[in-house]
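A reminder from the course coordinator: this example appears on the midterm review sheet, so study it carefully.

Given structure:
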């Protein structure tokens, strides 16, 4: 899925379809910055990664990234609700839960291995006598079930600890825990019926009523409980949600969420994106201009105009709004990649230098954008700089996880650079790179 603005750049990581968008990422960065400071993690360079999935979910898999589904952003009606979720996930990172869970898992696996050896031992000792098969099966299964219950119990404890840590971080940053409570309460209500017949010892998360009762005990007494999000932040949140709806929803679904009688700025934003995606470019440009008139200093409205013109085959007209968007955006990295794409699409050799400059800055700020390297390779090719074009192509392949192609291209680039030059060193590093165990190789 490639939607240049939302997702500004779509890519995959470990099989997950990711969304890259300057507006959404900037807002999430502002949401998490105070939480990470309160958790003592401000220097850890933790990123928020958006997954193109409509379900409500967020999780961590390491100490560097918090993954958030687009559905969680779209369904969180206030900033405080999604900030509460991010605070909970930060609690997992601050508590070192992933490393501890790996240790617990290793212990469980060891217990399972011992159980299997014991079962085999009973079977061998039984010599095939009647009943020994059942005994062996019981000897294998019972310890395995106990070990699994132990692991799930450990996970439930971690979830409870993350809840408490999240409330603590919210209090330290002067924010209400109500959004966090409301979100988890909504989930608890949704699964209450099915959970009433579930085995509480076979769950990875605390049972709904237990969790909500525990969370209520520490959250509802907060003096910040009734504190509301600032109106300006709420508007930015609503615009972000509208943007995601505009790009990800079907036209009929969007019409129900943002009917024509809703003249709010977020509703107009969503409908404008839908017009650009499903209707005429001319109409969408006219609608974007009305958005710009309402908020002239909103970089993402200018970005949207540039994107619509670029994808309509009018790259020369897209350059001015994209340049302006990049000049006023807090973090213009993704916008600069789109600007470079527009510059190159004009097929004007004089534009190659500006494209190279924009892309070099972009990959320095964020080295994980495959499209940036692909466009950089094209820009270097336009300039006749084949060694750097090959190196950029190798970097694009490596960023996509295609290490076989990356090594081949890097080896070719290495032969074209003077030995010991910066380009040669980078190409040599890529040509000899071997991904760690567990990283997909192609």
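Designed residues:
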């Amino acid at each position: 899925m490639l939607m240049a603005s939302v997702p500004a750049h779509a890519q995959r990581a470990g099989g997950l379809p990711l969304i890259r968008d300057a507006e959404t990422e900037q807002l999430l960065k502002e949401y998490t910055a105070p939480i990470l400071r309160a958790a003592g993690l401000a220097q850890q360079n933790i990123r928020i990664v958006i997954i193109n999935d409509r379900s409500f979910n967020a999780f961590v898999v390491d100490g560097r990234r918090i993954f958030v589904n687009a559905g969680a952003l779209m369904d969180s009606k206030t900033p405080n609700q999604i900030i509460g979720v991010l605070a909970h996930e930060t609690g997992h990172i601050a508590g070192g839960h992933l490393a501890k869970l790996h240790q617990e898992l290793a212990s469980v696996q060891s217990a399972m291995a011992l159980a299997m050896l014991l079962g085999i031992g009973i079977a061998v000792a039984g010599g095939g006598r009647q009943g020994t098969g059942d005994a062996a099966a019981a000897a294998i299964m019972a310890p395995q079930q106990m070990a699994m219950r132990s692991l799930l119990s450990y996970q439930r404890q971690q979830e409870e600890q993350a809840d408490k840590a999240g409330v603590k971080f919210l209090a330290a940053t002067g924010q209400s825990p109500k959004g966090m409570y409301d979100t988890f309460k909504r989930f608890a209500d949704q699964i209450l019926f099915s959970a009433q017949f579930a085995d509480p010892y076979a769950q990875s998360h605390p049972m709904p009523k237990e969790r909500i009762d525990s969370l209520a005990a520490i959250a509802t007494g907060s003096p910040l409980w009734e504190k509301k999000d600032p109106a300006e932040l709420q508007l930015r949140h609503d615009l972000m949600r509208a943007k995601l709806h505009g790009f990800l929803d079907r036209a009929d679904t969007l019409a129900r969420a943002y009917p024509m009688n809703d003249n709010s700025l977020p509703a107009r934003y969503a409908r404008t994106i839908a017009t650009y995606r499903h209707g005429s470019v001319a109409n969408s440009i006219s609608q974007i201009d009305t958005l710009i008139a309402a908020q002239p200093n909103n970089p993402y409205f200018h970005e949207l105009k540039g994107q619509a013109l670029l994808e309509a085959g009018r790259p020369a007209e897209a350059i001015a709004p994209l340049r302006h968007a990049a000049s006023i955006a807090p973090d213009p990295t993704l916008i600069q990649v789109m600007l470079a794409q527009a510059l190159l699409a004009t097929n004007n050799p004089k534009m190659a230098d500006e494209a190279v400059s924009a892309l070099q800055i972009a990959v320095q700020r964020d080295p994980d954008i495959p499209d940036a390297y692909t466009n950089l390779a094209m820009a270097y090719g336009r300039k006749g700089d084949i060694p750097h074009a090959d190196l950029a192509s190798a970097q694009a392949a490596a960023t996509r996880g295609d290490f076989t192609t990356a090594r081949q291209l890097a080896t070719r680039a290495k032969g074209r650079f003077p030995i010991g030059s910066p380009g040669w060193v980078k190409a040599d590093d890529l040509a000899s790179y071997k991904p760690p165990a567990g990283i997909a190789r192609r």
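Confidence is low (pLDDT under 50) at residues 1-13, 116-123, 193-206. The two ends are 21 Å apart (CA to CA).
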